[in-house]
Specification:
The complex is a heterodimer of chains A (501) and B (150). Chain A has 501 residues and is mostly helical. Chain A has a domain at 273-470. Helix content of chain A is 76%, strand content 2%. Chain A contains 21 helices and 2 strands. Chain A has helices at 2-5, 7-25, 30-58, 80-103, 110-129, 133-151, 157-188, 193-202, 207-224, 233-239, 242-268, 273-295, 300-321, 324-355, 366-369, 371-385, 391-405, 409-434, 450-465, 479-487, 492-500, and strands at 61-64, 75-78. In chain A, strands 1-2 form a two-stranded antiparallel ribbon. The longest helix of chain A is centred in the middle third of the chain and has 32 residues, at 157-188. The N and C termini of chain A lie close together (12 Å). Chain B is mainly alpha-helical and 150 residues long. Chain B has one domain. In chain B, 69% of the residues lie in helices and 0% in strands. Chain B has helices at 11-33, 42-60, 62-68, 71-91, 117-149. In chain B, helix 1 (11-33) runs antiparallel to helix 2, helix 2 (42-60) crosses helix 3 and helix 2 (42-60) packs parallel to helix 5. Classes of the chains: A mainly alpha (501), B mainly alpha (150). At the A-B interface, helix 2 of A face helix 4 of B.
Chain lengths: 501, 150
């Protein structure tokens, strides 16, 4: 058992090692840091794909750090949900690194960018694989602190302001999470998540678990940017460099926010009717508010940021249903959204790269002299708006079917309405930026470099074929195990505790 | 502040600093090395080591301190500390587990005991000491830059 499960700690060790090696020798020459970054990202991406295979062969794997047996020592867990999230995070990270080779040339210290980037990836992977709730918090902070620094990477005035706002709000979120963890530790006398679930299941629900649930909802809601807690996102995501916007919107809010909500509420505390209702309500609210606010934006990246809030709403609504189909649809939308939103943010970066502006009013007719960017935008927009055969259509269809199946017709109505709003906002982007007559100032623009094109092409292909994940046979490899892990609820602890002993 | 003797503070402060700075540095090292047998450890010792350099900078001005430990060296030391820590963790794989304490534990309460813990403390001290000093340097340099602009 220990030979195979030795793969688990590598998911944090490799990006951490990559980060520090780049900071030691990456400053010598640009190509060294590029090469090291690509290698590190490739290795963890391959490992994450390998973990899907390993999970399908060996089932749930556990790992005790330092040979200390949990619940005393720190445990790491590789189960269905973990492999799913690992693939999402590391796939997007790999594409973003390829993109950064060309895009980050304009900044002087590229190695600092890669160092912070891999610290963030290590933090996200750590959050996902950790089976110990305090360890989970530590990795969450590593990822958050690295992302605060990355938002401020350009060190212009508005970037620093956005980073400061993000840092303050993120820290408040972390504070609630830490307080919740402390209270739970006091109540259950254990920090191992599986053991904690076991202890909580034996005790009756008290006001304390309710209070802790509310704290986690606030903390993780802030990280996931669900609507009443979304204030930092529309500033932070547009201010960061495009690859980082793609990482933040694509995977950071999902691994720190949605994954944490899934793991804590489904597997540790256990989903209850009030929590489920709150999640559904907040999800629907984010969906509608994010969609309406996005329509009025003229800054391309700000529009995408608001649209992220709206799409996160879909995911939370579907997961909040807590029905098998709802969870499956929510996770599927999570996967699709991280792919096409990274694609759209990377594309907005290349629009900014070739035109030098993010203001939609100053663009026009880009489809004539930037056909590649225009095509990518079309693919991403179609997918997020839910046009068949792109992956976004299937996940939205499943979400709406799941909501209707659960008898929540009101929420289904809002989901369909916001889908139309999404179509409207991306038609706006297409109309003002890409179609129409070519502006005089945009006649002679730069070409998009090859690596930026390559990474966007990879993501576009995944968006096109993403719907295949639902095909019977394929879904059992990847999507079903993740949904099943969540559906097990607090019984997930028994498998892990026997695995550890 | 007196400017008669070049940069930094008055001669009293400078003299006292000359006497104490080495002691502070040594005390930091002592705290790091005895982290596993007495209160303290890598973090506390690293902070004390960084404070000795901060002390130097306050008394003699930033050039004197940066001559002893340049910005570049700080950054390299910090990364080295982190790498060492990760390396120790990865060496645990020789015994089969990540972070395994693979060195002989020895006798409790002796200086050479507790396996990898003292080594981890040294790595942490490098990381924390260099990191804290780097933050201080960054704040000092940033402050001077903004004063020049005004």
């Amino acid at each position: 058992m220990s030979n195979i499960s030795s793969i688990i700690p590598l998911f944090t060790a490799i990006p951490l090692g990559g980060a520090f090696v780049i900071s030691l020798i990456g400053r010598k020459a640009r190509w060294i840091s590029d090469l090291l970054a690509i290698l590190t990202a490739l290795v963890i991406c391959v490992l994450s794909l390998l973990s899907v295979r390993i999970y399908n062969m060996y089932g749930v794997l556990t790992y005790s750090v330092g040979g200390w047996i949990p619940p005393v020592g720190i445990g790491m867990v590789l189960d269905g949900l973990t492999t799913f999230m690992l693939v999402v995070v590391n796939l997007v990270a790999f594409c973003v690194v390829i993109y950064s080779i060309n895009y980050m040339e304009r900044f002087t210290s590229k190695w600092k960018f890669y160092t912070l980037f891999f610290l963030m990836v290590a933090g996200m992977n750590g959050v996902i694989i950790s089976g110990d709730i305090f360890n989970f918090f530590v990795f969450l902070e590593i990822a958050s602190v690295a992302s605060y620094a990355l938002v401020a990477f350009g060190t212009e005035k508005h970037e620093l302001e956005a980073a400061f706002k993000y840092a303050v709000m993120g820290t408040i979120g972390s504070l609630f999470i830490l307080l919740g963890i402390a209270l739970l530790y006091g109540y259950t006398s254990t920090l191992n998540m599986a053991d904690m679930a076991n202890v909580l299941a034996q005790k009756n629900t008290t006001n304390l678990t309710l209070m802790v649930s509310v704290m986690f909802l606030m903390g993780f809601g802030l990280k996931a940017a669900i609507v009443p807690f979304h204030g930092w996102l529309p500033d932070a995501h547009p201010s960061a460099p495009a690859p980082i916007s793609a990482m933040l919107s694509g995977v950071l809010i999902k691994s720190l926010g949605i994954y944490a909500i899934c793991r804590i509420f489904f597997n540790v505390i256990g989903i209850s009717q009030p929590i489920s209702s709150i999640l559904m309500f907040l999800g629907a609210l984010s969906m509608v508010v994010g969609g309406l606010l996005a329509l009025g934006q003229w800054d391309l990246k700000r529009l995408l940021a608001y649209s992220s809030i709206s799409q996160i709403g879909y995911i939370v609504l579907a997961i909040g249903l807590a029905t098998p189909l709802g969870i499956l649809a929510g996770l599927f939308h999570l996967f699709n959204h991280s792919i096409f939103k990274s694609l759209l943010f990377l594309n907005s970066g290349s629009v900014e790269y070739i035109t030098g502006t993010r203001d939609l009013k100053k663009m026009g007719g880009l489809s004539q002299n930037a056909p590649f960017t225009s095509t990518i935008n079309l693919i991403g927009s179609m997918s997020i708006a839910g046009i068949p055969p792109f992956s976004g259509f299937w996940s939205k269809l499943f979400i709406i079917v799941a909501v209707v199946q659960a008898g929540r017709f009101g929420y289904a109505f809002w989901a369909i309405l916001v889908s139309i709003l999404t179509l409207a906002m991306y038609l706006k982007v297409t109309k003002y930026a890409f179609s129409g007559s070519l502006k005089e100032s945009l006649k002679h623009i730069k070409k998009v470099p090859v690596f930026m094109k390559l990474s966007m092409a990879i993501l576009a292909v995944i968006t096109l074929i993403g719907g295949l994940l639902l095909v019977p046979g394929v879904d059992e490899l990847f999507l079903k195990p993740a949904a099943d892990t969540m559906l097990q609820g607090v019984r997930y602890s028994t498998g892990i505790l026997t695995g550890l002993k | 502040m007196s400017h008669e003797h070049g940069k930094g503070m008055s001669i009293i402060v400078k003299t006292i600093t000359r006497f104490t700075v080495g002691l502070i540095f040594l005390y930091g090292i002592y705290i790091v090395l005895h982290g596993h047998v007495s209160p303290g450890g890598g973090f506390a010792g690293g902070v004390i080591i960084a404070l000795s350099f901060v002390h130097l900078m306050l008394a003699y001005g930033k050039e004197a301190a940066l001559k002893k430990l340049s910005k570049r060296a700080t950054s390299i030391l910090e990364s080295t500390g982190a790498m060492l820590f990760l390396l120790i963790a990865l060496l645990g794989f020789t015994g089969g587990y990540f972070f395994l304490n693979f060195i002989n534990k020895g006798e409790p309460f002796k200086l050479f005991s507790a396996g990898i813990i003292p080594l981890c403390n040294i790595a942490i001290a490098l990381k924390v000491g260099a990191g804290l000093f780097a933050i201080f340097v960054a704040l000092v340099l940033l402050d001077l830059d903004s004063e020049k602009k005004e």
